[in-house]
Structure formats: C-alpha cells, structure tokens
Amino acid sequence: MNETIVCVVGNVATQPVYRESAAGPSARFRLAVTARYWDREKSAWTDGHTNFFTVWANRQLAVNVAACVEVGQPVVVQGRLKVRTETREGQQPWASADIDAVAIGHDLGRGTALFQRAARADAPAAVARPEPNWETPSRTDTEGDPADQQAPEPAPVT
C-alpha cells in the first residue's frame, strides 16, 4: 500500500479523549510539534512554526494512551499520515493532518518513564517455570558419577 508513515516528536496539547464503541476502544489527542532552529544573529535557539496533528489510537493502544498520556508530556508518535481538506458553507477551505498511530511513547530524551506491561484479560495466567541451573558442577559433585570415571585401558594384543 502507498501510505505515508511518519514519526513525529512533540508535546501533548490536549487531554486524550477515550471512547468505547462497537468497533473497540479509541482515543485521540492533539500533538504540537514545533520546529527549532539556531538563530546565528541572536546566537540562541529559536522556535519556528508549530504544526498540530490529531493523533488517533485504537484498541489496546487507546487504552494505554488513556491511562498514561497527559497534557504537556513529550511523546514520540509513529503512524500513518492522513491529510484532509474540507469546505463548509460560508467558510474558506481548511486542511487537517491526522496520524493513525501505530506506536506512541514518552520521549526519554526529555524525561523519565516507568514502563508497566499491560495485563491482558484474555491471557491465561503464566505458569511459573523454575530457573534452570546454569552452574557448572564442581568436581566433588561428580566423583560418584559413572560417566565421569576413566575407562579402563585396553589389554595389550599378543
């Protein structure tokens, strides 16, 4: 398929809105992405134009977004870019840019996060398996083992 996949880094501009529907859970929020550049005349970083995207998340990603994404947090969003143009009565045409998110995460370059794996309701409880013993047995542990004993020397041929 010819889809435009993007990866954008920005700040969450609106509180995520979570909805349950027949198709499954969904969440959306606005993402502000501001370009920064080095201004040689001022010898300082300067903010450029800010682009706003509506980020859409579905299924488990929507549940996780609603649980841990808040306004002002720096996030990284990867997904499919969808640009729409509309004309309404009496208004000039306008365009909006949406991202159908595949992955969303906090930008660890600007802060810390604590990851917790989401519990799946339909998954059976994991059976605890004992940790294998990776230690090499010491010589005293194997002295009684017949496999470690030396084989007798062959009898000389006459």
UniProtKB/TrEMBL annotation:
The UniProt keywords, alphabetically, are:
DNA-binding
This entry's Gene Ontology molecular function terms read: DNA binding
Query: Which portions of the chain have biased composition (kind: Low complexity)?
Result: 119-131
Q: Record's SUPFAM superfamilies?
A: Nucleic acid-binding proteins
Q: Which domain of life is it from?
A: Bacteria
Known InterPro entries for this protein?
Answer: NA-bd_OB-fold, Primosome_PriB/ssb, ssDNA-bd
Region named Disordered: 119-158
Q: Can you say what this protein is called?
A: Single-stranded DNA-binding protein
**What is the scientific name of the source organism?**
Streptomyces rubradiris
The major lineage groups are: Bacteria, Bacillati, Actinomycetota, Actinomycetes, Kitasatosporales
Q: Which gene encodes it?
A: ssb1
